[in-house]
Amino acid sequence: MLDMGKIKSVTAKYWGQLILLLVGFFLDGSLKSVLPLLNRSFFQVSVQILLMLLILMVLHNSDHDNQLFWFSLLLGVLYDSYYSRIFGLYTVIFPLTVLCTRSVRQYVTESVIFEWSTYFIALTASLIYLYIIGSFLHLTMVNGTHFITDWLGPTLLVNSLVFIILYWPVTKIIGWLQ
Hints:
Layout lengths: L3 H31 L14 H12 L6 H18 L4 H16 L7 H25 L7 H34 L1
């Protein structure tokens, strides 16, 4: 027998998650435009709020459903279309991040340091993946040393600060959506 209250709450949860992820999607591009300090000739920063939201949602999601995987796939396609214009970069990164995070979720204690560590590892892996693919497709001509000092390091630092600033409000919203 169908429980209409449960169906409505699950639907509201999915819509809430999708809206929060879309906010992260638009913040990724907006912050780069609003804060030109992040893009200097001597370093580049890629703000990754959407990736952070995906990881936190997976870590705080008690259900074993696949909606976050499908949301990440959809948002990966949109991200590639809207920001990178190269299909397959974020279309691979976001769903793969969801799957990997889901597989380690049982080992990650619900605390800011462990969740930040998970995000830090996923962000590092995704940036290295982007660099390798960019080098392979001749989209970047930066050597490994300059990649680490001019892009990877600043991006990890800024995203760690963003994580610390947004952690408590985002986890409260995610908890409220549960």
